[in-house]
Amino acid sequence: QVLLVESGGGVVQPGGSLRLSCAASGFTFSSYGMHWVRQAPGKGLEWVTFIEYDGSNKYYADSVKGRFTISRDNSKNTLYLQMNSLRAEDTALFYCASPAYGDYINYWGQGTLVTVSS
Amino acid sequence: EIVLTQSPATLSLSPGERATLSCRASQSVSRYLAWYQQKPGQAPRLLIYDASNRATGIPARFSGSGSGTDFTLTISSLEPEDFAVYYCQHLSNWPPLTFGQGTRLEIK
Question: Exposed end of chain B (fewer CB within 10 Å): N or C?
């Protein structure tokens, strides 16, 4: 079965950096694009970024463009999110997610919590 | 950017009742719309894709309809485990990929 396990969350000061990882298993990781979606405490879902199966194309929400970078290592079945210049409003549970039924997000990890606070 | 507006924000119903949730898009998304259910402390679960197709393992009491800008998620007879937050999400002309703000379905 598909398993996505995020790690790397924690507490960071405003302006700081953090790198999230997502270990994937149970499917052919190198054949699928991958998303990061976040959810601020008590709030709704916000799509953050997407990377094509081979890393050839990457897309970002305006709120993170220029600060966050998505990448992947298909040899390690791992997805990454490098987050720089973090702000208080980036505080959220970050999910990695993979599609099914075309591009619809169907599989989600358990999330990793990022807290930006001084 | 396509904005999805869900209504109502909160819906209070009793088990056994019928639930009707709405999602309106700021421009046509054809039928490229999904519905998700999220329970406290859990990741979202895909219920419906392409406006009306149930994902694998989703009970038949969940149904979706609509096209263009107006969509509906219907739960025909509420079970206790259906009380949760529901989000719609579009896949038309993205990025960005956007979600509605959610409808909280609570027990009356």
Answer: C
